[in-house]
Amino acid sequence: MDFTLDPEQLRLITDMDRRFAAGIGARAEDADLKGAVPDENWHDLAESGYLRIFHPTEIGGLGVDGVTQAMAMEALAKACPSTFWSATMSALVCAKLIHTYGNLVDHRRLLEPLLRGQRLACFPVVELTSGSDAGTYTTTVRREGNGYVISGEKARITNATTADLGVVFARLEGHEYGWCYAFVDLRQSGVRTYSMPRMGLRAMSWGGLVFDQAWVDAQDVVPVRLEEFQNGMAWGWLFISIASIAIAESALKHSVAHARQQIAFGRPLAHMEGVQAALAEMRTEIDAARLLAYRCAWHRTEGRLVQDLVGMLKPYATEMAVRVTQKAVQIHGSWGLTPGYPVERLYRDAPMHVIGGFASNRLREVVAQHLGLPTTYREFDWLSPTGLGMDIGKQPDRSLVTAEV
Questions:
Q1: Is residue 184 within 8 Å of 220, Cβ to Cβ?
Q2: The architecture CATH gives domain 228-370
Q3: How many alpha carbons fall within 13 Å on the CB side of residue 340?
Q4: Distance between CA 354 and CA 248 in Å, rounded?
Q5: What are the phi and psi torsion angles at 395 (to 5°)?
Q6: 49: buried, middle or exposed (CB in 10 Å: 19+, 13-18, 0-12)?
Q7: Is 3.50.30.10 the CATH classification of the domain at 7-119?
Q8: Closest CA to 75 of 50, 99, 104
Q9: Tens digit of pLDDT for each residue in 133-184?
């Protein structure tokens, strides 16, 4: 397993890092304040080749390896996590699902505009009352005439109000699998969208979609088994983890710069043992997460499902980013909580990644299952044999007592 880039790959990543920092990164604070990804960012993304980096050459991709993809993702996420989420959800997760479960004859028309940056996609999965438990989703696709209609509501969706296309995970009536991916045109009258407030990632569109018998062409409904759902989610867990690593790296960079220039008690903060220890811990945790991310990306692009690896990566990387940004705020003092300072924005962005995708505890269960631990829970009555389950307000029937004490 070699994480070294060849000269061509190195030029690609170096160009992206420079381009994103100078353009998208310079606009990140303003994008956060306005709550929207600037149009200039999409131009930079298309020109850099970022939207094509995740795909093979036969569909117009760049055909690079997983580690190069991971480095490109980190370059963009360091510049602006909100732009990263919006672009990567569309170009990586949605396009991968279309390519994997669809076919080029019917669905090239959907893929090409996404890779050119002409259209934007979203991945409507969770619902208002349902999160990580896919079996509780109620959005339904049913046959009607020569096509299908979809009804239901999805919530807390990236790109909800800005996407042109939805790769919707929903129930499929009348099919043995019972589930499907439906590629839905979101610009039709049967779809309503709304925005939802949130703490971080403010430039990213985030909200809900209501489907009221929206039309779906027959070839755009692809049946899948429920157990295949996590296969598609693995790409999302990977990109969320890399975003967290990038946020932590940015927080560390700003913390080192602040510690060097801020004077306290007659010396720079960087001369203080406690600050040095915090920075060293931040460096160590970030690099550990990055190495696991590279390993996941390497195997994922080689065709492995990597649910065990990414199940370890996402909880560790996302929670690590929260710890690192908290340390960054402590090093910055009150400046770390002042709007307009990068660390304040990163401090708000980091927790969004812990919840996004799948809950950390559920992913830890995935890791435990790969260790051979039980995958199902059987109810066991602990109380009745002890008598503790008895209603304390109910007195025993004295007529059953045969002897007096």
A1: yes
A2: Up-down Bundle (1.20)
A3: 3
A4: 13
A5: -85, 145
A6: middle
A7: no
A8: 50
A9: 888 899 999 999 999 999 999 999 999 999 999 999 999 999 999 999 999 9
